[in-house]
Write a sequence for this structure.
């Protein structure tokens, strides 16, 4: 079953602001990363999927349901974690998550049990009777995740879940999301403006920019490209680029660095020889994984040239 | 790939039984509305909250309670009611306003301020149902604020009555008193919830609610002193508190001299229109809030 499918989805506010423009995308269950800069239309897309906003035109289906006509049914099966602060400071996490479980239609005792379970899964078992106002940012993010999980949804919509977290907190949160997607059997859509973050945990990536679909693909398909070598010389970057091109090495410029596709160990030798022959001061030469960001960047430049 | 968090605490081992899916029943709209209503009613009295949240509602309730106890004592001692059931809400209307001003922001402004609303509206809770649950909770709380002391007064009077006929006469006065208290609760709560739903900050919302009730009072005063009978009789329409007491004069006043002349039905219609307008505006407000 297709998890989320849209057909020419468009949303304009008034006549001028276009949040989503002719977005057609279909994703399978799993962990999906929705990437785009701030204002790319991610939050609008989420609100349309929850049935809180009506699209200007086009169709959307979530879990096989149409949120524009069947929003209640969609919202009963979806968990949503908003980007901004959304917790009352003077309630305990256990009480708050239980209450929201009941608002999702769980019977009283079930809501209490599942709230405890959800808080345990996000790692807040011991502290759950303390008031949320006294929690750290990381703990608050966990409560927000727990409330999205309490009613056992089939799909989680997480809007910038790592916002405001320190590096360790980010890793823990991403690990948790990955676990929910793989072990719990719940599909997750993670919105982020940090590509490097979501690419670590996602099966599928959807990139949007200015409301338009940039690319939607399986992440393995995107990262099968071979590793690259980053070469940086203090001067003579142009000469080196020309020399490497002569040697039949595909070179890609990025700021002051040259990115060279790494086929085998011979590539190292070729580059080092070229640098030595040109007598250039070598600043750095290191191997990098071909990050998805570069794929998107390449695509954008190709589009720009075309 | 980040490693999952260590699942063992230093003090012992937490046995992870894994994630359990839920296949049980999911209740419908009525239950969800009921759950939010009960939660809101508890919030109104500060139950399940910090001591700070309890101060205002319980302070006002105790003042109203003391008034009722004193009145009951006077009636038991002297056999004469110092204050009728119908006069009770009118005399205490300033306290009802303060109660609504303290509680309505706790119910609605707080959700706006803390950003909880997106969590509600991402669930199978209708936007209108949210408004209904909050309004119903404040109406119930305000009604209880008045009905409990009235019942205490009735109990005192009933026990000191000479015969069963006296108890029945007392009951005949008590029932309209309860109905009148309910009318106060509905009108005052509708205005208070609507005003509070427009303001994010609780302190500002409380001030706005009080203002909504009090700014029109001078207009009533001016209309009262104008040398025209009609303006005097219609002056009560301008202010929610005097509007309700006008309806009370029309429905429950038995002495004949009411100060509103024959305009009673108009007071009734305006009251219904005011409540209806508040509810519709409240629905519109939350349709807008849910989209943003």
């Amino acid at each position: 079953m297709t998890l989320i499918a849209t057909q020419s989805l468009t949303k304009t506010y008034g006549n001028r602001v276009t949040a989503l423009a002719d977005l057609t995308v279909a994703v399978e269950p799993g962990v999906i990363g929705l990437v785009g800069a701030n204002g790319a239309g991610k939050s609008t897309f989420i609100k349309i999927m929850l049935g809180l906003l009506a699209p200007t035109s086009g169709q959307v289906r979530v879990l096989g349901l149409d949120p524009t006509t069947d929003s209640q049914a969609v919202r009963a099966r979806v968990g949503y974690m908003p980007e901004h602060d959304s917790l009352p400071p003077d309630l305990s996490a256990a009480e708050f998550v239980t209450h929201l479980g009941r608002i999702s239609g769980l019977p009283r005792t079930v809501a209490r049990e599942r709230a405890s379970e959800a808080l345990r899964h996000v790692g807040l078992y011991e502290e759950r009777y303390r008031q949320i106002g006294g929690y750290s940012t990381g703990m608050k993010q966990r409560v927000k995740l727990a409330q999205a999980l309490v009613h056992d949804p089939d799909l989680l919509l997480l809007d910038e879940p790592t916002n405001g977290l320190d590096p360790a907190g980010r890793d823990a949160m991403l690990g948790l999301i990955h676990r929910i997607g793989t072990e719990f059997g719940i599909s997750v859509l993670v919105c982020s403006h940090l590509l490097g973050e979501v690419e670590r945990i996602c099966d599928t990536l959807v990139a949007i920019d200015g409301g338009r679909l940039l690319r939607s693909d399986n992440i393995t398909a995107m990262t099968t490209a071979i590793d690259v070598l980053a070469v940086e010389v203090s001067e003579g970057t142009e000469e080196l680029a020309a020399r490497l091109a002569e040697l039949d090495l595909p070179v890609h410029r990025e700021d002051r660095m040259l990115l060279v596709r790494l086929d085998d160990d011979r590539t190292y030798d070729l580059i080092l020889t070229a640098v030595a022959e040109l007598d250039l001061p070598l600043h750095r030469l290191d191997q990098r994984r071909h990050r998805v960001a570069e794929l998107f960047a390449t695509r954008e430049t190709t589009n720009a040239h075309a | 790939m980040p490693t999952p968090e260590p699942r063992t605490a230093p003090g012992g081992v937490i046995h992870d039984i894994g994630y359990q899916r839920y296949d049980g029943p999911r209740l419908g709209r009525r239950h969800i509305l009921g759950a939010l209503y009960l939660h809101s009613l508890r919030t109104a009295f500060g139950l399940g909250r910090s001591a700070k949240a309890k101060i205002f509602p319980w302070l006002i309730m105790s003042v109203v309670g003391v008034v009722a106890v004193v009145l009951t004592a006077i009636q038991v001692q002297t056999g004469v009611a110092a204050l009728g059931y119908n006069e009770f809400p009118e005399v205490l209307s300033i306290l009802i306003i303060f109660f609504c001003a303290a509680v309505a922001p706790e119910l609605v402004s707080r959700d706006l301020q803390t950003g909880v609303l997106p969590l509600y509206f991402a669930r199978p809770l209708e936007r209108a149902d949210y408004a209904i649950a909050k309004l119903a909770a404040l109406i119930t709380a305000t009604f209880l604020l008045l009905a409990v002391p009235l019942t205490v007064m009735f109990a005192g009077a009933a026990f000191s009555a000479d015969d069963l006929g006296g108890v029945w006469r007392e009951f005949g006065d008590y029932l309209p008193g309860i109905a009148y208290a309910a009318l106060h609760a509905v009108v005052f709560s509708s205005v208070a919830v609507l005003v509070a739903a427009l303001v994010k900050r609780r302190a500002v919302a409380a001030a706005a609610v009080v203002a909504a009730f009090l700014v029109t009072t001078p207009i009533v005063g001016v209309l009262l002193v104008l040398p025209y009978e009609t303006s005097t009789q219609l002056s009560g329409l301008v202010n929610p508190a005097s509007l309700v007491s006008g309806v009370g004069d029309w429905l429950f006043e038995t002495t004949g001299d009411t100060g509103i002349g024959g305009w009673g039905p108009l007071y009734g219609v305006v009251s219904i229109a005011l409540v209806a307008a508040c509810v519709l505006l409240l629905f519109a407000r939350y349709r807008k809030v849910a989209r943003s």
In short: Chain A touches chain B through 56 residues (CB under 8 Å). The two ends of chain A are 36 Å apart (CA to CA). Residues 132 and 140 of chain A are 7 Å apart (CA to CA).
